[in-house]
Amino acid sequence: MSTPNRVYIARLAGVAVFDPNGDQVGRIRDAVARMRPTQRPPEVVGLVAEMPMRRRIFLSINRITSIDPDAVVLGSGTLNLRRFEKRPNELLVLQELLDRRVQLDSGPVGSVVDVAMESSRGGEWALTRVAVREQTSRLTRRGHLHQVEWDRVRGLGAVGDNRGTANLLAVLEDMRPADLANALQDLPDARRNEVAAALDDERLADVLSELPEHDQVEILAALDRERAADVLEEMDPDDAADLLNELPPPEQDVLLDLMEPNEADPVRQLLRYASGTAGSVMTSEPVILPPDATVAEALARIREVQLSPAVAAQVFVTRAPLTTPTGRYLGMVHFQRLLREPPADLLGGIVVNDIDPLRTSTPLTEITRRMATYDMVGMPVVDRNNRLVGAVTVDDVLDHSLPRDWRDRDAAPTPSATDDGTLDDD
User: Which residues does the UniProt record annotate as the domain CBS (predicted)?
Assistant: First the structure.
């Protein structure tokens, strides 16, 4: 692989990073440039890569041996895994420049859609060219794309509030919700709220579920109440209940009243349970089928794309009605058992009920102990009349067993940068 002389940075977003042995260590999320006091374009000092567990680290440009559209390869040496933190005189190119409203020397006004970095003969990388989409008053026509030198663009040096979100969203659109949530935490609050508000309701609901509680509340508060209620409707009831629990009761009532009754009712029910119990952490929408359903029907049901792996791992069998609270709970069938049985067999003939279900008042410590004892991915929750009211899955247990700030990037140790742009441990 060879490194081109000029690289457009938005095209690097999401590109895999490999060590000298060919092992993938992360994906590129941004480039770091150092502002200079003269009129010279900013110097690119490195790239930001996202590692497993959503840790972002700094990769010095001097450590990178090759860049192409499919891979960034590092040279030999120890990879520093301390979390990246931007210094005051540094610029995150995609985060801070993409969608910036600027003016060209030739007159047109437009927004930044990409920025190129270019290497000199001495090996120094700098931001040299800017791709700017000209604004047009015609909604059905895209403006002309200009690719011009850095010094021919006005408005790149000062931070302003005149940036849109379309191009940044285009870079972020292929991220998993957890990764997008991580990226939002890197943005200033106003920019974060702006980008979040531009997401559609379903996408924003998924992202909110992956954010720390304080960020969830701030983003929700920045929306008008009708939009906030629409987003809550798209969330899983247990996630919506967790978020509403962070709000004052009067605000909870307002948002619940704005939600569709069939969406609000399961959330209201979850809010009634005491914190730290099965009732408060369960999902009220597990996969439920009657005993006369076939194995084929059950397999088709758990294939539905909106189901999380933990929810789709088992089918709960009950008498009618099949929405919580159901008729009498009969038992459950794990998906591995479904794969071993003839498609035409009935669930009533293979149902398992030798493990006592949880009660809504079962504490989290007991839930954890029982799920570990029986190697369960999910367990049923029933009321005093043996009606299924929900299920606790392993992700519910993990989410409520970890420290409250486990999603918060600010809770983890942060790195410091040395003068040469690399990161060192203290």
Answer: 282-348, 351-409
